[in-house]
User: Which sequence fits this backbone?
């Protein structure tokens, strides 16, 4: 069969590459056309129609400045679908662009699968109407998504979470503490405190000062900042004296005694690595912003570990609640010897059990093939 896939960012490229390999393993005749990146190219043995580096526009102003490029990308993608006439179209997250492509594929009578659901359960729930109209089957990687989509009359299948397999693979390759400290010129005699302030300038600007203030209250620990790819040293200037380590965020979290993490996928990675953490999300810090966020969000938590567990496992210090005093209190409660530490680690075990076994990409591939073959 011929498969058309679209991933518009690095994480999508990673997950789509694993799906391509799984489809090829289960379908010896498989051929691929795709929008994506280098990992998808390696897995499929062909070049992308469009590389995701020409598609990854984020934020209103950036999208506005690149409307012509986005329009050209969409025209190119539509033509590629029309010319290749695939047996199915597979969207990997990237909702705004993929929704339009899904509509075009469905118009041509091509079945649509969606792997890595857009977070419509958190916001923009109105998009479910379009998803229901265009998508044959939603391949979910978070267990709680199944009930959400079934409530909206969509066919959804939980295939497992690819992060679980990826994290366990990375844990096997994580260096020892001494080797890690030697490589990054750190003191191996002090326990590490990981500061993970996010990858965007605004996130770093809002959250790192809070994290830094808290870290300075724990001289018994060695704070280390997880530097985001492409971010200049000037972004971390407010944390003078605290080392910044690039390209080693997961190893840092896995080896740390505790972590302060800006909400995002890093919170799930930290949980699967088994490191106690406090979620910090300052976001300009006003009470008004917090109240607006509570109105917009359709979910009781913002961090993936809590959403997966269906209860509070880690503390979420959000907006105006994210202060040095409050974050420090939560951090102190999860340090070695504190009762909340063991409770959090038990919660992490529950999260792992809810995510199930390895093999998300293989399960997704088998589901697609079974559906296509009737």
Assistant:
């Amino acid at each position: 069969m011929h498969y058309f896939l679209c991933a518009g960012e690095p994480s999508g490229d990673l997950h789509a590459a694993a799906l391509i390999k799984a489809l090829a393993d289960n379908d010896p005749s498989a051929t691929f056309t795709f929008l994506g990146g280098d990992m998808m190219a390696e897995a499929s043995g062909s070049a992308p129609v469009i590389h995701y580096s020409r598609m990854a526009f984020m934020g209103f102003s950036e999208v506005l400045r690149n409307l012509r490029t986005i329009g050209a990308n969409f025209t190119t993608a539509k033509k590629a679908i029309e010319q290749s006439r695939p047996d199915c179209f597979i969207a990997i997250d990237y909702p705004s662009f993929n929704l339009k492509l899904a509509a075009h594929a469905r118009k041509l009578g091509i079945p649509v699968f969606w792997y890595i659901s857009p977070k419509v359960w958190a916001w923009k729930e109105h998009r479910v109407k379009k998803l229901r109209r265009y998508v044959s089957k939603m391949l979910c990687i978070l267990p709680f998504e199944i009930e959400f989509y079934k409530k909206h009359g969509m066919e959804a299948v939980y295939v497992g979470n690819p992060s679980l397999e990826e994290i366990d693979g990375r844990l096997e390759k994580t260096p020892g503490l001494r080797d890690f400290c030697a490589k990054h010129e750190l003191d191996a005699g002090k326990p590490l405190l990981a500061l993970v302030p996010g990858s965007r300038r605004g996130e770093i600007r809002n959250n790192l000062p809070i994290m830094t203030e808290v870290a300075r209250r724990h001289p018994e620990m060695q704070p280390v900042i997880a530097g985001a790819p492409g971010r200049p040293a000037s972004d971390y200037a407010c944390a003078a004296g605290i080392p910044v380590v690039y390209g080693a965020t997961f190893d840092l979290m896995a080896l740390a005694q505790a972590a302060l993490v800006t909400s995002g996928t890093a919170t799930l990675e930290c949980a699967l690595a088994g490191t106690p953490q406090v979620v910090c999300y300052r976001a300009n810090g006003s009470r008004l912003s917090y109240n607006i966020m509570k109105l917009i969000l359709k979910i009781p938590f913002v961090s993936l570990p809590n959403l997966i567990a269906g209860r509070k496992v880690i503390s979420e210090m959000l907006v105006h609640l994210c202060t040095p005093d409050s974050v420090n209190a939560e951090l102190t409660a999860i340090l070695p010897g504190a009762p909340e530490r063991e409770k959090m680690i038990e919660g992490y075990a529950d999260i792992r059990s809810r995510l199930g076994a390895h093999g998300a990409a293989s399960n997704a591939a088998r589901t697609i093939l079974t559906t296509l073959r009737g």
In short: The chain is about 50% helix and 15% strand. The first strand starts at residue 2 and ends at 7. The two ends are 14 Å apart (CA to CA).
